[in-house]
Specification:
Length: 357
C-alpha cells in the first residue's frame, strides 16, 4: 500500500491591504477550514494601525475583547491563534523608549491569549546599516518577553523578487544569510517563494532557501490574495497550482494570505489539502466550489472564471459587467453577494491605501 503523502501544517494569514474581515467572518472561516488541515489563524490585517504605524498604542477595550474571543474560538476548534505585529521602523532606533513600548505591546498580546506571534518587518525601508543584526536583537528581545509558544518573523526582504529592492531600497549584502544564521533556529522565517506573488514554488528553490536561512522556510503564500491596485480588479478562484506534494517535507508550514472576499477565498483554499495529498487535477476547483457555494452557483462560477479571474473589472466591457451583476444579484448566497459587491467596487485598492495602511 502506498503511504499517504505528508500534509504540512496549513493556516490562514489575514495579511492583506484594504477592508479587513469582520470578526464573525473570521470565526466562520476558522470553523470551515479547520477540518481541511488549516491549523492556525494569524490576525495581521494591514488596516489595523495599532499593529503597524501606531503599534505603540493599546487596542481599545472592544477590539481587545473581540480578539480574545477569536482566540478562544480558535482554541475550541483546535486551531492556533496568532497575531502579526509590525513595529513600524523600530529597527531605525531600538533604544530604551522603543524597548519599553515593545514590552508593553507584547504584554497586551499575551493578555489576548496568543499561541503564535509574528514580528513583521515587511513593507518598510530596508537599505539601512546593520539591518539584519538589529532585527536579530529585536527578535531576541521579543523572545525573552512573549508568552507565545511559537515566534515567526517576516524579513524586510522575504523573496528574491527585485520588486522589493525597487520599493524599499536595495537589500544589504548577505542580509538573509546574516538574519537566518544569526537567529535562534526555533524562530520561523516567512518566505513567499521566488516572487512576492509566486506562480510556482518548487522543491529545488525551497532547498536553496533552507540552506540560506538555516531552517525550513515558513511559507507565506500570496494566493489567492487580491489586494493592491493591480490585483483588486480580479477574483482569484482557481485551485492552487505550482505547489505539489513534493514540497511538504521542505517547509515548516504553509500559510495562505486569502482574498478580500471571505467566502470566495474558501474555494481555492480548500484545494490546497487535496494538492498536498497528491489529488491535484482539473476537478479540484469544481469540487471545492460545490462545497462552498452549492451545485448551481458553482456551475455559474466555473462558466464565468475567465471573466472573473482573467479579464477582471478593467478588462470586461460594461455589458459583461452588467450581465454578471444581474446573474449573481438574483442568487441568494454569500458568494454571489461578494461578486456583486466586487463588481460595484467594494474592494478597489488604491496606491494611497497601500501607502497609508
Amino acid at each position: 500500500m502506498t503511504p499517504e503523502p505528508h500534509l504540512p501544517e496549513l493556516g490562514t494569514i489575514e495579511g492583506f491591504y484594504g477592508k479587513p474581515w469582520s470578526f464573525a467572518a473570521r470565526a466562520a472561516h476558522v470553523s470551515a477550514l479547520a477540518p481541511h488541515g488549516y491549523r492556525f489563524y494569524h490576525y495581521a490585517p494591514k488596516a489595523d494601525a495599532l499593529l503597524r504605524r501606531r503599534w505603540g498604542e493599546p487596542h481599545p477595550k472592544e477590539d481587545f475583547e473581540a480578539l480574545a474571543s477569536l482566540a478562544a474560538h480558535c482554541r475550541a476548534e483546535g486551531v492556533r491563534f496568532g497575531v502579526g505585529l509590525s513595529p513600524y521602523e523600530i529597527y531605525l532606533a531600538f533604544d530604551e523608549a522603543a524597548r519599553a513600548a515593545l514590552k508593553r505591546k507584547l504584554a497586551e498580546l499575551d493578555a489576548i491569549g496568543i499561541d503564535d506571534l509574528a514580528i513583521l518587518f515587511d513593507d518598510m525601508r530596508g537599505d539601512v546599516p546593520r539591518l539584519a543584526e538589529t532585527q536579530i536583537e529585536i527578535l531576541n528581545f521579543v523572545a525573552d518577553h512573549t508568552k507565545a509558544g511559537r515566534l515567526i518573523t517576516c524579513p524586510s526582504y522575504y523573496s528574491h523578487d527585485p520588486v522589493l529592492d525597487r520599493f524599499f531600497g536595495e537589500r544589504p549584502a548577505h542580509y538573509l544569510e546574516t538574519l537566518g544564521w544569526g537567529l535562534d533556529p526555533a524562530i520561523g522565517i516567512f518566505w513567499t517563494g521566488p516572487k512576492v506573488c509566486s506562480v510556482e514554488i518548487g522543491s529545488d528553490h525551497l532547498r536553496r532557501v533552507a540552506e540560506m536561512l538555516g531552517r525550513k522556510p515558513f511559507l507565506w503564500d500570496n494566493y489567492p490574495v487580491n489586494d493592491g491596485q493591480r490585483m483588486s480588479p480580479f477574483l482569484h478562484l482557481r485551485a492552487f497550482e505550482g505547489r505539489d506534494a513534493e514540497i511538504a517535507p521542505l517547509i515548516a508550514a504553509h500559510g495562505v494570505n486569502p482574498a478580500s472576499q471571505t467566502m470566495l477565498s474558501r474555494i481555492p483554499m480548500l484545494t490546497l489539502e487535496a494538492t498536498y495529498r497528491g489529488k491535484g487535477g482539473t476537478g479540484l476547483f469544481g469540487s471545492a466550489a460545490r462545497d462552498v457555494a452549492g451545485e448551481r452557483l458553482a456551475k455559474m462560477l466555473e462558466d464565468d472564471l475567465a471573466l472573473l479571474q482573467d479579464k477582471g473589472l478593467n478588462g470586461m466591457t460594461d455589458e459583461e459587467k452588467a450581465a454578471l451583476r444581474i446573474r449573481y444579484a438574483a442568487f441568494d448566497h454569500a458568494c454571489a453577494r461578494e461578486i456583486v459587491q466586487w463588481l460595484d467596487g467594494e474592494w478597489r485598492i488604491t496606491n494611497e491605501i497601500v501607502l497609508t495602511q
